[in-house]
Amino acid sequence: MSISAFRKKKLLYVFNVFFDINNSGEIDKKDFEIAIQKICDLRGWPAGSPKNTETHEVMFKIWEGLRSKADKDNDGQVSVEEWCNMWDSYAKDPSNALEWQQRYMNFMFDLEDASNDGAIDASEFAIVCSSYGLDKAECEDAFGKMSQGATEVTREQFAVLWQEFWQSDDPAAPGNFIFGKTNF
């Protein structure tokens, strides 16, 4: 089994928008450092604050998990090919959950749930997604498709949508919109 053209488009979108922050063509620790700064600035978490420290710790654990699973040539970077190969392996055995992916999912949910009420609404979702350079109106549309018209998405619902994003070949699957894009 190999990755379908549709899934590859989704994977490359996430690679380029949410991981390769410095647009170097590869994911490395520097991308995570930039993302951490962006996240902390977005949320107003100053250096040394508990949330800033937690963000650093969680994001670097995500980086180490990703690097250990995908960086097959051990050069400290994850290439597009390594990224796609990792997801192809995952697709062959979805029961082999990637620990870093689970950590990243929880981190994204917590980041988007700015009100800390256990659910994400369209505004919270759009603020985070648009901070990565996406059009805010498209992010709001994506939320409507992802939530299937509901006003909020709980962590449990988010987890199902998250898995659907990574595994589905169905262009209409609600999980496809979890990263703020309405078409691929």
TrEMBL record:
UniProt-listed Gene3D superfamilies: EF-hand
Pfam families, sorted: EF-hand_5 (PF13202)
Keywords: Calcium
Gene Ontology molecular functions: calcium ion binding
The keyword DNA damage is annotated on this UniProt entry: no
Name assigned to this protein: EF-hand domain-containing protein
Domain EF-hand stretches: 69-93, 100-135
SUPFAM superfamilies xrefs: EF-hand
Signal sequence segment: none
InterPro entries: EF-hand-dom_pair (IPR011992), EF_Hand_1_Ca_BS (IPR018247), EF_hand_dom (IPR002048)
Organism for this UniProt entry: Chironomus riparius
